[in-house]
Structures are given as C-alpha cells and as structure tokens.
Amino acid sequence: QFAGPWHLVAAVSVCSLFLKMKDEMKSATITISVLPEGHLAVRLLWPLMDKCQKFELLFQQSGQGGHYLGMSEEKRELHVLETDYSSYAILHEAQQSGQGPRTTLQLLTRAQDVSPQLLQKFRELIPTVGLTQDMLAVLSKSGECQEAMGWH
C-alpha cells in the first residue's frame, strides 16, 4: 500500500547542510518499492545544484509495524508516524552519524500540491520529535526530475 511514487513537499531537520540550503531546495520525487522480504527500497530524485541527484536507501523491517532499520553503514531508523497510504505520509528518520544523531521529519504527498490543513498537521508534529519551526522547509515544486521517475 505504501509503495509507489511520492513527493517530498516539506521537511524539518537539524542537519546543518539542510538548514543552509533549505530556502533553495525543491521538492524531491521519491519512489518506494516493497521488496519480497518486506524490506523497503527508497529511491530519491532530488534537484540539487541544477542537476538531478539520485539516492537509493534500503531499509529492513524491524518487526514493529511502520518501523524500519537502514541497511547501509550509517545507522538510520525510519518510522512511518502517520499515513493514509493514498494521499500523504509523515516519516521520522533518525540517523547516527559521526556528528551525533540527526533527526528529520518529512511530509510526503502523492500529489505535488499540499493542502494547508496537512501542512498544519505536519507543523504540529515538529515539536513532538524535538525539532523547531525555524528548521522547516516547505519545498517548492520542481519539474526538473519528473522525467526520470521510471528509473530502476
């Protein structure tokens, strides 16, 4: 149910690089595939610095519903905090890095437009994960990486 294309339309993060770039950031296209063992493959296409950056992350199920663990060197945890599967999902990602823990809250929508009500719901969750409103980026629409949606 969770699989398929999504748009990353808003994000909140303590990452210093994110905070430096957040005003210029454009919305990313995310394709989520559920692999046979129940693992998740998350592919991002992000227009950064005038080109489409591709990222692929693999997560394995932790045994708890909606909770996944990263399968790369970096210790990432992904929680699906809230979703209706058909129009939006709110993800909480925690990552242990050399610089200490990094927390990110992400709002994904199926359509590129986000309703004010959904944005408000997202804003209300920000303090619950220890982040603040000034770290919020509402990402502007981008057509730049759309053509690459089908890459495998």
UniProtKB/TrEMBL annotation:
SUPFAM superfamilies: Lipocalins. Gene3D superfamilies: 2.40.128.20. InterPro entries: Calycin, Lipocalin, Lipocln_cytosolic_FA-bd_dom. Residues 3-141 form the Lipocalin/cytosolic fatty-acid binding domain. One of its GO terms (molecular function) is small molecule binding. Pfam families: Lipocalin. It comes from the Eukaryota. PANTHER family: LIPOCALIN, LIPOCALIN-LIKE 1 PROTEIN. Belongs to the calycin superfamily. Lipocalin family. This is LCN15 protein. It comes from Semnornis frantzii. The gene is Lcn15.
